[in-house]
Model the fold of this input.
Amino acid sequence: MITVLNRKNLIALSDSKELADIRLKLKNKNIPFEVKTTRSRSAFGIGIDVKTYSATHINQPYSEKNQHISFIYYIYVRKKDYLIAFTTIKE
Done:
């Protein structure tokens, strides 16, 4: 079990494909991990972005206006598994 006291941040990234690759590598080595997802912008910042982009990019679909909104994925492992996990994701 991974708790706040026995975990260590393995990596922080924003690419979901890379996240999937790392998760698969860790699962294949039976290394327990935890993923925490946060937004790169606050709700207030996203609201400002949507308002600004909707005014300047009227003819673009909604998804194209908000491509700059990204997520940050933090992968945590147990402290005792950190070295093994680090070498696993670098392979």
Observations:
- The longest helix spans residues 43-56.
- The chain has one domain: 7-90.
- The chain has a mean pLDDT of 83.
- The domain at 7-90 is CATH 3.30.70.1370 (Alpha-Beta Plaits).
